[in-house]
Amino acid sequence: MNDRTSPYPFIARGASAELFDIGGGHALKLFRDSVSDEMIAREAEASAHAAACSVPTAAAIGLQTSDGRRGIIYPRLEGMTLMDWVRRNPMRAGWAMNQMGDIHAAMHRASGGNLRSLKQVLATDIAYGPAPDPLQRAAIAYLEALPDGDALTHGDFHLGNVMMTPRGMVVIDWSKAAAGHPAADVVRSEMLMRFGIGPTDWVTNLWRDWAARRLRRSHAAASGVSARDIDAWRSVVALAWLRARDATGRTPAFMRYLDGALRRSEIGSLRPE
Known about the structure:
- It holds the Pfam family APH.
- This is Aminoglycoside phosphotransferase family protein.
- By secondary structure, the chain is an alpha+beta fold.
- It has two domains: 10-75, Phosphorylase Kinase, domain 1, CATH 3.30.200; 80-264, Aminoglycoside 3'-phosphotransferase, Chain: A, domain 2, CATH 3.90.1200.10.
- It is built from nine helices and ten strands.
- It has helices at 37-52, 82-88, 93-108, 118-127, 133-145, 182-195, 202-223, 227-241, 251-264; strands spanning 10-13, 17-23, 26-31, 62-66, 69-75, 80-81, 151-153, 162-165, 168-171, 178-180.
- The strands form three sheets. The protein has a five-stranded antiparallel β-sheet with strand order 1-2-3-5-4, with helices on one face.
- The protein is globular.
- It starts with 9 loop residues before the first strand and ends in a 9-residue tail after the last helix.
């Protein structure tokens, strides 16, 4: 069972965990049974590594089990997600995207250290995804020819994983972190912003597309990662996302995005000729 009673005051709930106030300025993130030990350990390690690299984040303090549930102790953050903050401050959305882009670029200037290889993560997700075998082989061959990179990448950098706190923006949830090329992480954020979980009415879709472009451009201005770099990674990052994409909205738009990227990379197509 995933949602067992905790003796601590409840703070928030996400897809993979619940957050509780355990006092003393600390919070306990208790994971659902479906989350692997490896992912929990990676989140704790990556958060500590990011903090050591001066990325604004809450570094894991330690691991703790409560009523049979595995968890991580963090400093308790005051504030709200950037998604909620933008909803309350819509006229400052452009500023928020610029700040987010600056943080993303600063993250990518840090080394990924001993974190897993992002290229290997992508290759595994492509190989175990739903694409036809010939397309998988062509995509993995294309991926192997791309530069490795050694940057600290988040893998899930979007408005819901940035907190607006009294000390500014703070990045949370490092469970998908890896060492790799910054452009791949930029593509991942672009997809999450445009095609991830969230409202899909036409007005919101226009805003999501705008926000993704603004974030991408602000990152480029701060990092020097070019549009050509991003284009080179878009096909394989998008194809890898097929394995675990859990958003049902905007699927036709995402499939057009993916197929266009595959064709431009000359990998192939998911659509029959």
